[in-house]
Amino acid sequence: MPARSHSGPKARDSADAKWAAQTTEHLRDISEDIAVVSERFLHETHSATAAPEDLALFITALDRLTEAARSALVVHQRSSGRSLNDLAPPLELTADRLRKKYKPQQVITQLESRPRPRRSPAGSPRPDSSFSPKNELLRPRQRLACALTLIQRQSGLTQRTLAEHMKNNPSYISRILSGEREASWRHVKIICDACDVDPDLIKPLWETASDIDPTGHEPDRYLRAYLTALHFAAGSPTTHQILASTHYAISQAELRQALGGPGVPTWSVVKHVTTALLGLPEITRPLWRSAQNSTVSTIRAEAFG
């Protein structure tokens, strides 16, 4: 009697809920990354100075992301207990080839260590020189990670409990809280909701860490929201601690204005507050400039009726 083939229409792979959840998250991350790289690619194709070799780098990056998506999709199909025969035609490979090429544990390991592109405003990349080993903890992503870690610890919830809310494993949460892995806004909201914290408190930190333009506030209010978020991420130091950190270069009234308004303090004040709260002045300065310009425009409009 001939041996029964395991690649027929009824063939199924064993289900693994953990891998299914992980690959779902990876597919979402990869789709976000494809959008980021595609945006940059589109911008460069409209640039008169773009060199062909630069455009080729985008194509290569998109190829890698497509391959990562393919591997995650295959493992997701297998770990969900569904047949690879359904994926074979659209992926233009046989089910046996998909099974041999994309081994679950190997794919998961590769996806976990996959570097992610960062979203930057078109034409204004952030210089890498801003981040040296000395100020590594001042990186926007680390400030966000510190805030999320504080939220988790103050709530009393364990990382395992948060992982259950996120339908992922504790190691995934651990990498987000350490700043090793970039957090999506959906992840941030899940953590905040589970810990009963308003996610808008740290949204400016997430937007800065993700290089996303400020949303939801007027420029002066956004600057204060960002400084308030830095204050939280730094462990909510007291007024005395902040002033002492600046060596009393600013007054209590100036600190109060920087964090609560009204109006926009001078750049010197904002710079001192940013540094005291473990932020990077080069991140805060564009926010301050936008807030200052907005305030000046408002005053002029009111003066002329």
What does this structure look like?
- There is one protein chain.
- The chain has 305 residues and is an all-alpha fold.
- 63% of the residues lie in helices and 0% in strands.
- The chain contains 15 helices and no strands.
- Helix 7 crosses helix 8.
- The longest helix has 29 residues.
- The chain is globular.
- It starts with 16 loop residues before the first helix and ends with a helix.
- The N terminus and C terminus are likely disordered.
Helical proportion, percent range = 55-70%
Order of helices and strands: HHHHHHHHHHHHHHH
DSSP strand tally: 0
Shape: globular
Class by alpha and beta content: mainly alpha
Oligomer: single chain
Question: Which descriptors would you attach to this protein?
Answer:
single chain; 305 residues; mainly alpha; globular; disordered N terminus; disordered C terminus
A few lines on this structure:
The chain is an all-alpha fold. It is 63% helix and 0% strand.
List the helices and strands and how they pair.
Layout: H1 17-45, H2 52-79, H3 88-91, H4 95-101, H5 104-112, H6 140-155, H7 159-166, H8 170-178, H9 185-194, H10 203-209, H11 219-233, H12 239-245, H13 252-260, H14 267-276, H15 281-303
